[in-house]
């Protein structure tokens, strides 16, 4: 089945690389106009926008730090100025600052919570205000707006040495569910995606060479994921094919969350 997001506008945060980049590409290929948000890396975001436009699509790269309220407000204002509406938010920006808990600095804690959790709240709030004003755009989508929160298997799997990251993603899970409970009556559809080990810049060390072989022991399906594995699900969840999917997290992890260490054990 062909998915069309024609006449819809999607904003993807953290889209200069990795899952966000692939999601922006996939949403544009499905016909959406895309806002490619980046924080520091302008060039890859702008290059993607140029490529989408060259292919006949609509795209704009906008810099903004999602942990800063003023930046987020400006990002959504510029989105409306450029494209006139907003239908899909992929709250994707995320980072890791790993350290054993005893050595973790408050700055490392705050940075990760600020981007991964507060950033998702600020972006969701800005999107909800727009969706409420817009209402359902007849003939465009059955929902008044869709939000996809990018979480992680670590919203469920505890992760030693990454307490800031795991706490942020645990927070994303209940942020997503509570928002979905709150705004579903306005026909706003909110869901999450929990990727496992996907090959991106965030985990190059863990996914390559010997470390990569060790990591495979945690993935029953036997391969590291690709960004497209996640991007395809983003397009599906954003589309009306998923119109009755509300407040759910889709795990895209090759079975990592199935506790494979227990195979033949205990
Ligand atoms: C992290 C990756 C990690 C994966 C599985 C993701 O959320 O960002 O670094 O490889 O979870 O542990």
TrEMBL record:
EC number: 1.1.1.47
UniProt keyword NAD present: no
GO MF annotations, alphabetized: glucose 1-dehydrogenase [NAD(P)+] activity
Enzyme type, top EC level: oxidoreductase
Keywords: Oxidoreductase
Coiled coil: none
Cross-referenced Pfam families: adh_short_C2
SUPFAM superfamilies (UniProt xref): NAD(P)-binding Rossmann-fold domains
PANTHER family: OXIDOREDUCTASE, SHORT-CHAIN DEHYDROGENASE/REDUCTASE FAMILY (AFU_ORTHOLOGUE AFUA_5G02870), SHORT-CHAIN DEHYDROGENASE_REDUCTASE FAMILY PROTEIN
Family: Belongs to the short-chain dehydrogenases/reductases (SDR) family.
The name this protein goes by in its record: Glucose 1-dehydrogenase
Organism (species): Pseudomonas koreensis
């Amino acid at each position: 089945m062909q998915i069309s997001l024609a006449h819809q506008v999607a904003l993807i945060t953290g889209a200069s690389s990795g899952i966000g980049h692939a999601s922006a590409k996939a949403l544009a290929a499905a016909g959406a106009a895309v806002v490619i948000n980046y924080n520091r890396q302008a060039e890859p975001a702008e290059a993607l926008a140029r490529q989408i436009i060259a292919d006949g699509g609509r795209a704009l790269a906008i810099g903004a730090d999602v942990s800063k309220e003023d930046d987020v407000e400006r990002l959504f204002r510029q989105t409306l100025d450029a494209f006139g509406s907003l239908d899909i938010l992929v709250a994707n920006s995320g980072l890791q600052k790993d350290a054993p808990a005893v050595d973790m600095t408050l700055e490392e804690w705050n940075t990760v919570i600020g981007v991964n959790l507060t950033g998702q709240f600020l972006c969701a709030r800005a999107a909800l205000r727009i969706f409420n004003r817009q209402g359902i755009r007849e003939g465009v989508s059955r929902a008044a707006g869709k939000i996809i929160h990018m979480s992680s298997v670590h919203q469920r799997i505890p992760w030693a040495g990454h307490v800031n990251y795991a706490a942020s993603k645990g927070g994303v899970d209940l942020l997503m569910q509570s928002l979905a409970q709150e705004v579903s009556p306005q026909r706003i559809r909110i869901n999450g995606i929990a990727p496992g080990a996907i090959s991106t810049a965030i985990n190059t060390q863990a996914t390559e060479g010997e470390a990569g072989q060790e990591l495979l022991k945690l993935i029953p399906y036997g391969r590291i994921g690709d960004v497209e594995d996640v991007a395809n699900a983003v397009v599906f969840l954003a589309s009306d094919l998923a119109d009755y999917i509300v407040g759910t997290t889709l795990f895209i992890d090759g079975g990592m969350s199935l506790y494979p260490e227990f195979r033949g054990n205990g």
